Amino acid sequence: MATQELDISQLTSESQQVIQLIRQGHSFLLSGGAGSGKTYSLVEVLKAVLVEKPTSSIACITYTNAAVHEIEERVQHDQLHVSTIHDFLWRNIKHFQCELKCTLIELMNDDEQPKIKSPDGETVAVDFFNELESDIKYKEFVKIKDGCISHDEVLILACKMYEKYEKLCTITKDSYPLILVDEYQDTDPNVVKLLLEHLNQSPKNNIVGFFGDAMQSIYPGSVGNLNEYTQQVPPRVTEVKKVQNRRNPQLVIDLANKIRTDGLLQEPSKDINAPNMNADGTAKQGTALFLYSNNDDLDVVRHNLAWDFDDSTKTKELNLTHNLIAGKAGFDDLMRIYDKDKVLEFIKRVKGYIKKDDNKIETEGKTFKQVYGELGGLKDDVPKLLAPTKGQREYIDANPQAYHFAFEQPYDEISKLYIDKDMLLDDKKNNAEDLSKPASKRDDLIKHLFKIEHCIHLYKEKRFNEFSRITDFSITSVEDKKCLKESMDALIEVEERSIGDVIGFASTLNLVVVDDKLERFQISRNYVYQQICQIPYQQFRDLYQYLEGYTPFSTQHKTKGAEYSNVLVVLDNGKWNSYNFNYLFEGNGNDNVRHKTEKIFYVCCTRAKENLAVFFHQPSANVIAKASEWFGVDNIVNLDEI
């Protein structure tokens, strides 16, 4: 079928520019700030291209399954293939099983990459998969010996294959002359390299288009921006800027423009039907307040604002740290283990004692208790440097079970054990629909629990097709359905069940099987695993509810992409040295920390559709001066004077 040139005059100006770049064969980047309607532009471009070139296949890569569904609902065409990056890559490599297996073995034997390893961690032979009766499969779990790989492995494997095989690059370019990437700033740098560099090994032509906002790049391990490609001469990727804002009221737009550091300044939409516009074509003003106090009582802040904080669909309180929320949201024991464990801190103190020249002892094959006893730690007159500190002793006295369990662990393993709250709480863009969190810091135990709760979520929502797709439960008869209902009903009612009970039950039912990753976790991090397994499962369910946004509380990272009528941003670093709100307002300190703080603050403020309030506890005079400049003197509120 011959192509026809489309009249693009009815499109928005940014989409017109993009269509012209596509016609000229240029890759492009459409940059738009918060609330600019980037997804609208993506859909508009898709529809236009499909009219102009109805026989040309287009791949549209989005970050979440929810975004996939949204685009598919708005654009339906046989030549449009919308998917997450993992599904896109797997679709392209899964048929090349010989090359796939060879590359997988190569990666398993590569000491420089730690994520894909053989079940025992040892080097494998080139015939490792020879006895495998089926192809390599992409599953929700990892069983390397059975040929099952999961999300993380697919990403690494695909990038390596595109680097190695020019033919694969040619086939992909032939299949998809146009590839569009939504929310590009959150993409793994290796995926961008694959699209803009590895594919170019093939002489075939194709165009890659990116949609997103560098200022909203707030997750570690993401590409962040495309400056490397847009600032080349001539540019490999041509940038188009989208400056209109359809979400925020005027006062929030004004604030956001002062926060941005890349020169992209927004203005209210010219569309009177936009949510932030009045019927007469003027922008809604909204409110943007900076509140401060010498008292950190947030109840006072909430009372002053008089918003309905019980309505989580309209009002959100955003905190940088989870510690401020854990007790209220019901997962305090999980938080204690991942963020406040002082038994491991004490063990590191003992390790430091051993490193002294006069305290050398043999530790191989011994438990922590045996090592501590040989050092004299079990005697009445324990050397001061070997005894727990006051804070460590208080924790040990409050949690004797953890202390005694640590005593029985192999010293050489537990002395190297590291725990971080991100392993529990990392909320890089994720929701109940998306189990594959690229670059997630959540550990394999928490990821496993998320899979279980996601199965329960789908079952309760009666989304049985999706449920069956992500589980290994086989339904071939009426009896199977009856068995499934009974099992799921028991799994949903978890009031008396521990986390360990639920893990075992879900695996026995073949809902979420215990895979290689969880088995390795149980062996290498047994001190953590056993403690978590004894906690009531309801605590994890409460954590899940919190991280999925079903409570009035949210972290500042989690809120990205969402919008609410009323937004309260609590500026508290929470001893997290990656961010510093003093640096943000005072303009000093570490540049990297300040830039990361600017981005998280920008994302938070631009969630507000009507009212924004920012609370700062005990700000300096310089902070108040900068706040007055950004918010306006009339919008600064000293709560101590009310």
Polypeptide structure, described:
With 642 residues, the chain is α/β, with parallel strands linked by helices. It has 29 helices and 16 strands. The strands form 4 sheets. A 6-stranded parallel beta sheet has the order 3-2-6-7-1-8. Helix 8 links the parallel strand 6 (178-182) and strand 7 (207-212). The chain is globular.
What's the topology here?
Blueprint lengths: L12 H11 L3 E6 L5 H15 L5 E5 L2 H10 L5 E5 H9 L3 H12 L28 E2 L9 E2 L1 H14 L1 H10 L2 E5 L6 H8 L10 E6 L14 H4 L6 E6 L1 E2 L4 H10 L7 E2 L18 E7 L4 H8 L9 E5 L6 H4 L2 H8 L3 H12 L13 H7 L15 H9 L1 H8 L3 H4 L7 H4 L18 H17 L3 H7 L7 H15 L6 H10 L7 H9 L1 H8 L3 H11 L5 E3 L8 E8 L9 H6 L4 H15 L2 E10 L3 H11 L4 E3 L4
Helix pairs in contact: 1-2, 4-6, 10-28, 24-25
Q: Output the structural class.
A: alpha/beta
Q: Whole-number average pLDDT? A: 89
From the spread of the alpha carbons, the general shape counts as globular
- Enumerate the strands of the largest sheet in spatial order, edge to edge or round the barrel: 3-2-6-7-1-8
